[in-house]
Design goal:
Blueprint: H1 10-32, H2 35-44, H3 83-103, H4 113-130, H5 137-159, H6 165-186, H7 194-219
Length: 224
């Protein structure tokens, strides 16, 4: 009797392949999405007037032309000769987040809705880099919303895919970052402290991604 060849089940091939992708790509992509922090440091040295990490926002580093008219609420002077570096880093970081959402879709912290929110945050980062503050202040604020809210929400929701300390730390971090993001984006209460508040929203999210990626890599199935 001639029998049909046995077809492997999708999961038999998919799981090792997914494990290899996580081990090979998760950590490099997570480190690359930190490009925005490196860009902030580099670009700040060329910023005019002297860059203040407490008062000056990240978006001001992406202002290509010297102007005081980019902010509809306050006339803040900003001139960033290396704006292209900052905006390019935002785009790169967003691309990395979207790729991570794909690679880590079966991993704790990025599964289900959390992964969708990370992809949304990545799209917001790309849009933020494409629409600088001096191009259109209102549009810039709108397209940056997914970055401000998507990241913290993704942390808070994804944290419940863990147990123990990571769950508590992630949930707390996500809720605090989300609250600060709402305050920063919708009120003038933090004017004068915009830079530090903005970084308390963005930087912890970037660091959390590295933690999740490193953990996923360690737990991924070894290559065969």
């Amino acid at each position: 009797m001639i029998t049909a060849p046995r077809l492997s089940q999708p999961n038999e091939d998919a799981r090792p392949t997914a494990g290899r992708a996580v081990r090979a790509l998760a950590l490099p992509l997570a480190v690359l999405q930190l490009a925005t922090i490196a860009a902030e440091i580099i670009v700040s040295f060329a910023f005019k007037p002297k860059y203040d990490w407490v008062t000056n926002t990240i978006s001001e580093l992406g202002v290509g032309g010297c102007t005081t008219e980019f902010d509809p609420r306050h006339g803040v002077e900003a001139c960033s000769p290396l704006a292209g570096v900052m905006n390019g880093a935002m785009i790169l970081s967003g691309i990395c987040l979207i790729l991570l959402a794909i690679v880590l879709r079966r991993s704790d912290g990025f599964g289900g809705l959390a992964g969708v929110l990370w992809a949304v945050a990545g799209a917001g980062s790309i849009a933020t880099g494409l629409v600088s503050l001096d191009t259109s202040p209102v549009l810039h604020q709108i397209v940056s919303m997914p970055l401000f809210f998507g990241g913290p929400l993704a942390i808070a929701i994804g944290a419940f895919q863990f147990t123990g300390g990571p769950r508590v730390v992630g949930a707390t971090l996500g809720c605090i970052a989300l609250a600060l993001g709402v305050v920063f984006s919708t009120t003038d209460w933090v004017y004068g402290f915009g830079g530090i508040i903005e970084r308390l929203v963005i930087w912890p999210a970037l660091a959390w991604v590295v933690f999740v990626a490193a953990r996923a890599r360690n737990h991924a199935a070894p290559s065969r």
